[in-house]
Amino acid sequence: MSRIAYVNGRYSAHSRASVHIDDRAHTFADGVYEVILVVNRHMIDLEDHFRRLDRSLCELDIPRPMTGRVLTHIMNRTIHLNRVVDGIVYLQISRGAAPRNHVFDNASLTPGVVCTARRLDVPATSRDVSGVEVITLPDTRWTRVDIKSVSLLPNVLARTRAAGRGAYEAWLVDGEGFVTECAASNAWIVDSSGRLVTRPVADGILRGITRERLMTLARELSIEVVERPFSVAEAKQAREAFLTSTTSLVKAVSRIDETVVGNGHPGHVTCRLLDAYLDFARHQAGFPDGHSRVVLG
Ligand code: PDD
Q: Considering the entire predicted model, what is its pTM?
């Protein structure tokens, strides 16, 4: 089945879908995006994604191109046309197309909207997953990483370096040796008392939607969450480490650089949190028992 993409009012074959050569997302990375998890054809935590999207647009002074209702319709149609049951939707909004000039004039621009969807295997339970390796690299990004901008070159380079070393992700490290987040996910550890530790959002990270959801779920499970920076050295000694994102869900980290974390297998707390997240997502997607009725895409 060929994939279908939405671009500026039209649904067309993904392979032929295109934007204008002067689209500012292309020339200046002048745009924002969201990636939303789809479970059982249902977008998970959509309102939270819209809230973050609005904030990103507002911070960059890009006008919202259409209402949430219309955007929801476009995303649902894209999910449907691509026959995605479990997967992700990608939504990108650029400032629009104009002859290349650093200075923008919103009055003469129409924001560009792109939407794609693809399948993703959602595990049935934490028993189906294994841990991943990560490497640590200096965080060389700009200071506005709280904005979900398409300007991702340092992230792209970091993740590619990680892949080149056979690792799944890069954990980014600030000048003082503290982990900020990962190239495309948020970073967490479990300390010796079983508490979750993750960096505060005010401290140079993206407010991950999965991160926020996991905090709520952790509290429901009576797992204490401490928002504070942690160092690479502390992470290597941690009982457990994991990362969170829309595409990775809750992923156990079994090795940081050359150091094995814990016993090298997904830890008890990480597994509990992944199972809680899967149950939550299935419940929101309309499976009241929250059980493994998820059809893999
Ligand atoms: N990445 N931090 C960074 C730098 C990210 O790029 C992401 C998401 C996250 C986690 O955010 P969320 O839980 O809302 O997915 C944290 C997406 C998935 C991506 O770029 O593909």
A: 0.95
Q: Is the CB of 92 under 6 A from ligand 1?
A: no
Under CATH, which architecture does the 4-119 domain have? 2-Layer Sandwich (3.30)
How does residue 291 score in pLDDT terms, banded at 50, 70 and 90? very low
The per-residue pLDDT of the chain, averaged, comes to 96
Of 24, 95, 141, 148, the active-site residue reads 148
| DSSP single-letter state for residue 85 | S
- From the CA of 247, give the closest atom in ligand 1: 18
Pick the closest to residue 113 from 167, 74, 146 (CA basis).
74
Looking at 3.20.20.70, 3.40.50.10950, 3.90.1170.50, 3.20.10.10, the CATH number of the domain 126-284 comes to 3.20.10.10
For the chain, report the end-to-end CA distance as a whole number of angstroms: 13
Q: Which residues pair with 133 in a beta bridge?
A: 255
Amino acid at 106: N
Write out the residue limits of the CATH 3.20.10.10 domain(s) in the chain. 126-284
Q: What pLDDT digit, counting tens, does each position of 40-75 carry? A: 999 999 999 999 999 999 999 999 999 999 999 999
Q: Nearest C-alpha to atom 6 of ligand 1 is from which residue?
A: 184
